[in-house]
Amino acid sequence: xxxxxxxxxxxxxxxxxxxxxxxxxxxxxxxxxxxxxxxxxxxxxxxxxxxxxxxxxxxxxxxxxxxxxxxxxxxxxxxxxxxxxxxxxxxxxxxxxxxxxxxxxxxxxxxxxxxxxxxxxxxxxxxxxxxxxxxxxxxxxxxxxxxxxxxxxxxxxxxxxxxxxxxxxxxxxxxxxxxxxxxxxxxxxxxxxxxxxxxxxxxxxxxxxxxxxxxxxxxxxxxxxxxxxxxxxxxxxxxxxxxxxxxxxxxxxxxxxxxxxxxxxxxxxxxxxxxxxxxxxxxxxxxxxxxxxxxxxxxxxxxxxxxxxxxxxxxxxxxxxxxxxxxxxxxxxxxxxxxxxxxxxxxxxxxxxxxxxxxxxxxxxxxxxxxxxxxxxxxxxxxxxxxxxxxxxxxxxxxxxxxxxxxxxxxxxxxxxxxxxxxxxxxxxxxxxxxxxxxxxxxxxxxxxxxxxxxxxxxxxxxxxxxxxxxxxxxxxxxxxxxxxxxxxxxxxxxxxxxxxxxxxxxxxxxxxxxxxxxxxxxxxxxxxxxxxxxxxxxxxxxxxxxxxxxxxxxxxxxxxxxxxxxxxxxxxxxxxxxxxxxxxxxxxxxxxxxxxxxxxxxxxxxxxxxxxxxxxxxxxxxxxxxxxxxxxxxxxxxxxxxxxxxxxxxxxxxxxxxxxxxxxxxxxxxxxxxxxxxxxxxxxxxxxxxxxxxxxxxxxxxxxxxxxxxxxxxxxxxxxxxxxxxxxxxxxxxxxxxxxxxxxxxxxxxxxxxxxxxxxxxxxxxxxxxxxxxxxxxxxxxxxxxxxxxxxxxxxxxxxxxxxxxxxxxxxxxxxxxxxxxxxxxxxxxxxxxxxxxxxxxxxxxxxxxxxxxxxxxxxxxxxxxxxxxxxxxxxxxxxxxxxxxxxxxxxxxxxxxxxxxxxxxxxxxxxxxxxxxxxxxxxxxxxxxxxxxxxxxxxxxxxxxxxxxxxxxxxxxxxxxxxxxxxxxxxxxxxxxxxxxxxxxxxxxxxxxxxxxxxxxxxxxxxxxxxxxxxxxxxxxxxxxxxxxxxxxxxxxxxxxxxxxxxxxxxxxxxxxxxxxxxxxxxxxxxxxxxxxxxxxxxxxxxxxxxxxxxxxxxxxxxxxxxxxxxxxxxxxxxxxxxxxxxxxxxxxxxxxxxxxxxxxxxxxxxxxxxxxxxxxxxxxxxxxxxxxxxxxxxxxxxxxxxxxxxxxxxxxxxxxxxxxxxxxxxxxxxxxxxxxxxxxxxxxxxxxxxxxxxxxxxxxxxxxxxxxxxxxxxxxxxxxxxxxxxxxxx
Length: 1277
Known about the structure:
Blueprint: E1 8-9, H1 10-19, E2 60-62, E3 81-88, E4 94-100, E5 118-121, E6 127-132, E7 143-152, E8 160-166, H2 172-179, H3 181-194, H4 207-223, E9 229-231, H5 235-240, H6 246-252, E10 255-257, E11 260-262, H7 277-294, H8 298-304, H9 314-320, H10 344-347, H11 356-369, H12 374-388, H13 391-402, H14 408-417, H15 429-442, H16 447-461, H17 464-471, H18 477-484, H19 492-503, H20 510-524, H21 527-535, H22 545-551, H23 561-574, H24 579-593, H25 596-603, E12 619-620, H26 627-638, H27 640-647, H28 658-661, E13 665-666, E14 669-670, H29 673-695, E15 700-701, H30 705-712, H31 715-727, E16 733-737, E17 740-743, E18 778-780, H32 819-823, E19 850-851, E20 854-855, H33 886-900, H34 905-919, E21 924-925, E22 931-932, H35 934-939, E23 941-948, E24 954-967, E25 973-974, H36 975-983, E26 986-990, E27 993-1003, E28 1007-1013, E29 1015-1018, E30 1023-1026, E31 1031-1032, E32 1036-1038, H37 1048-1075, H38 1083-1100, H39 1109-1140, E33 1149-1160, E34 1165-1173, E35 1178-1183, E36 1186-1189, H40 1194-1197, E37 1207-1216, H41 1220-1223, H42 1233-1240, H43 1247-1250, ...
Parallel strand pairs: 12-15, 24-28, 25-31
Antiparallel strand pairs: 1-5, 2-3, 3-4, 4-8, 5-7, 6-7, 7-8, 9-11, 10-11, 13-14, 16-17, 18-24, 19-20, 21-22, 23-24, 23-27, 26-27, 28-37, 29-30, 32-33, 33-34, 33-37, 34-35, 35-36, 38-39
Helix pairs in contact: 4-7, 11-12, 12-13, 12-14, 14-16, 15-16, 16-17, 18-20, 19-20, 20-21, 22-24, 23-24, 24-25, 29-30, 29-34, 30-33, 37-39, 38-39
C-alpha cells in the first residue's frame, strides 16, 4: 500500500490541530498533524473513530502579548511574520503558530485560483521532540517541545508555516500542592499553629484562593519592571504557599533570599509580541493557573468575587491561515460530531463541511502534490461523491475515470480477480501476463472479466505490454462463446440474444461483440447468422441435429424415441422458460428420425394432468416474456373477492358518463372517460381469462394477447406508442396543420388543450410538472399523486437515493421501483389529452385552406361572391388505407406487449389495481374526495408518518399504501428486520437540518403486499445488480408492533428497540474495523504477527527495537481480542433483545399466502410463484404452464444455495388470519363433463410425456428465449 504524502487544506489542518494531543505520541509513529488516516476500502462510515481514552480535544485560548497579527482587511505582507500564541484551557498545552510569505509570491492564498492554503509537511525543516527543563536547574526530564513545518503547495503562494507545541509547565504534583485540600489544610494549619495570635481570625484558604494568590503575584511581576520582594512571613504567602511550594516557585523564577522572596523580573520595555524567555514563562504559568481556576467549583469561584474569562483563539487561527470564511455546505453548519467524519475526508486534506467545489480543489491539490497516491485519492473522491449523493462530484469522478485514472479499490479488485495478492504490484509484467493466461485457460467463461482486470492493472502500472495483452479479446471460437456468455449448443437465435445482452453492458464494445458472432457464424457455416451480420435480420434457423442432441444433453444418438421424450421432459422441468429452444431441438431430432411419436407429441394441442381437473388449478402459457405476468394473474385468481368481482363485473361496472366521472377521484386525480373505457376492456379480458381458468379441460390455457397488452402497457405508454406509430409510419404525408402532420386521408388532431380539468388542483403532486413528495418505504396509493403540502419535503438521510437507471440496461423488472411507482401505485405518467371535437367534414362546412404561408380566400367570407378558379390537382389522390391483415395486428400487439414488459414490477401491479378502480363504481368517498371501493378495501392500508420539526413538535401525515417496501441490500435479514426498515426512526432532512421521522400503520389491509427491493446500483461500474441476500420468511407474522397507537408501553418498547439497533450498528462497525485489515488478518492476529516479527528482528540484532515495544503490541493484541469477544457477546445479547421485544404482541396475525420468486440476474431471469391453499393445507408452485404440488415447504422458506443464480423472493403476500378462509380460494374449477371425456382421449402421446406441455409455437408467435428473455434482456418474465 502506497504511503500517502499529500497535503492538507488550512481548515483540515486546523481541525487536526484541535484533535492532535502532543502529550501522547503514538508508539507506531503516527502523528495526526502530518500523517493521514489508514486507507479505507469503502464508503461506510465507522461509527466511532478510536481515540485514546484521555485524549484532549483542544480549546485554544489567546495569549495576547505573544501574538502578532495583520489587520482583518490586510493582505499578507511578505516582510512580516504573523503569529498566534495560544494555550489549551483543558490540557494546558501551549501553541505558537507562525506563517510567513516568501518574497516573490505572486498571489498568496486564499485567491481566486486557490481558495485555500494547501500545506505540505516539510520533514527536513521540522525538529523531533526535544526535552526542556527547569530554568534554574539542569533537569531536562520535565517537559517537551515539538516543531512541525509546512509549506503551501501552490507555487503562487508558497507560504511557510511553523507550529510549535510545548508541554504545560505545571507538573501534576505541583498542581496537587495548589488544589488538593488535604495538602492545603495542614500547610495553613501549621502556619496558624506556629503563630496563633497573628493568624487569629484567618481560615484555611480554598484551592481557588491559592491559585488566585499565585496568579496575582505573577501578573504583578509582568506589569512591574522593578523587582519586588515578598516577606517570607507574609500571612497570605504562608497560608497559601509556604515552604512546601519552594520547588514550584523556584521553577517560575522566584528566588529565596534570607527572609524574603524575590519576585521574577519581567521585561516590560518591549512592545508586543514579547518573546523574552522570562516573560513567556510567566505568561504561560499565569494562563495555566487561570485555566485551573476556571475549572474550580462555582462556589469557590464566587468566593473570590472576581470574574475571570478567556478569549478563544479559533477565529484568530482561522484568519491567520485564510480559513475564516470558506464555502461550507448549509447542512453542515449545525453541530456535527467530529466522529461522524469519514476517513476519506482527511485523506483528501478536506473537511466534512466543504462544498463540492472545495472537495474537488483538495483532490486536485493532492494529485499534484502526491501523484503516487492518485488511486486512493480517487477512491476517496468516489466514496465522498457516493456518500453525499452529489451529481456534480459523481460527474467529476466519471471524468477522472474516463481519463485513465483508476481507484485503489478497482486496483485491489483487479489484482484479486487475477489471483494476485498483496505485494503483487512489485511483480514484473511477464509474471502478471503469464498468470492471466493461465487463469483464462482454466476459466474461459471468465476471460472477459479477467481481461478487464488486466486492463486496470496495466493502466495502474503504466505498462504498454499488459494493456496490449488486455485488448486482445476475441481470437477464436472458444473466446467468442466465452465473451458472449454463450455455449456451443445454443442455436443461432440464442447467439443473437446473447449478443443483445452483451452490447447493453456498460463496458462492452459492439465491434468486439459482432466479431464474436462472426467467428461463431464461420465455425457453424450459419447462413442465418451471416444474414443477420449483413442485414440485422436473422435468417431462417434450423437447429443442426447434432446441436439438438447437445441441447438435450443426449450423448447416444441411437436411443429410442420414448427415451428422447423422457430426456426432453427432464430438461423442461428444470428450465420451463426455455421451452421454445427445447422444442426446436426436439423438432430437429424428430425431423431427422422421421419419428411419428415425436411429431405427434409436438403437434398435440392439449395436455393432461395427474390430478382431477376439478381439483387442480390450470397453468398459464408463457406467450413470450410473460412469466411475471402469469404469476400475477395466478395470484389475483386465488383471491376470492377479487375473482368474484371480475366474474360478476356488470354488477360493479362504473357509469362512464362525464358527469359521473367528475364526482370521483383516484389518487387525487379525476379520471378521464377514455381511461374508464380502457379499464373496463381490461376487466372484461380478465373476466374471459378467469372463466377459461375455471372451465378449461386442459392443464393450461393461453392468455389473450390483448389482456397481456392491457395489463403490461399503461394507457400513457400506449398513447405514446400509438402516437409515434401514427406520426412515424409509412402513410402518405399530406402536409401539416398547426405543426401536426396529416397521415393519409385522416384529419390531424388539434393541438392539445390543457389537462388541468383532469387533475385535481389541491396542491398535491403528480409527475405532470408538479414536485413529487418525499421517497418513502411505504408504497403509496398507486394513483395518489402526492402528500399534502403541509409537510416539508423530506429526504431520508440514511435511505439510499435511487440511482439513475443505466441507459443501456432497461431490465426494469430487476431495477428499483421508480420514484413514481414508489410514491403512488399508478399515477398515469402523462394524462392523455381528451379527444377534441371532431373536425367538420368538408361537405358540411367549408374551412380555410392553407398552403405554406399563403392563406386561400375563405369561400364563405366576403370574397365568396367572386369567381374563384380552383385548379385541378397535379397528382392523383392517395390510395385509401387498407385494413391490416390479422397477423400484422397480432404483431403490433406483441410489440406493445414487449414494450409493456419493460415496466418494473410495481408499475405493472399499479396498472392492474388502478384500472380495476377506474372500471368500478365507488362504494364511498373519504373526506378528501378519494374513491373508496372494493379494491381499496382489499389491498390498501394507511400509513401515518411522524416527523419532528425544528420546534421539537411532531407533524403527522396519513396516506394510502398498497405495499410495504423492504430492503435486503445490507445483508441477510429476518422478515421482521426487513419490515422494521419501513417503520423505524430515521433522520430526514427538514429545512436544511436533519430531524427524526418514524412511521406506523393506521389502517391494515386484509391483503398485505410486501415488495422486496433487490435491485441495487453499483456506482463504480455504473450498472445495476441484483442483491441475493436471504430473506428469512415467517409463515405467520404479527403486525401489532407497527400499528398506530397511543399505548405508552408500545411506544416505550419501540424507542428501546431503536436504541438497541443503534448500539448494534455501532458494534458491528467497530467489529468490522477490528476484523478487516489490508493483510487479510484481524487486528489481534496482525498485532501478534507484528510482535513476533519484532522479536525476530531484535534477536538478529541488526536493527534496534525500542524497549517495551513488543510487549506493548502484545498487550494491544490482547485488548483487541478481548474487545472482539466483548462485541460478540453484546451483539448476541442485543440481537436477542430486539427479536424478543414484541413476542407477546400477537393480536394481529398475518399468514403467508403467496411468494413471487425470481431466479436470475439484474439483466435476465425467470419468475414463478408459490401459492398457499389454506383449506387443503398445501403449497403449489405455479411455473407458467406447470402447476405442481410443493413436496417440502423448505424450498419456499430456506435459502437457495445455488452460488450463481439463487432463487429469491421478490414479492410477498400476507393475508390477515381471520379472513384467509374467505379471501383465499386457489381452486375454482367447473369443467363440463363432455370436455373431461375429450381430455381423456390422448392415444397418440403417452400421458406421462404429454403432461404440462403447451401447444407448439407457431411461426411468428414467439421469439427464442434466453432465461426468460427474447432477443435482448426482457423484463417481467
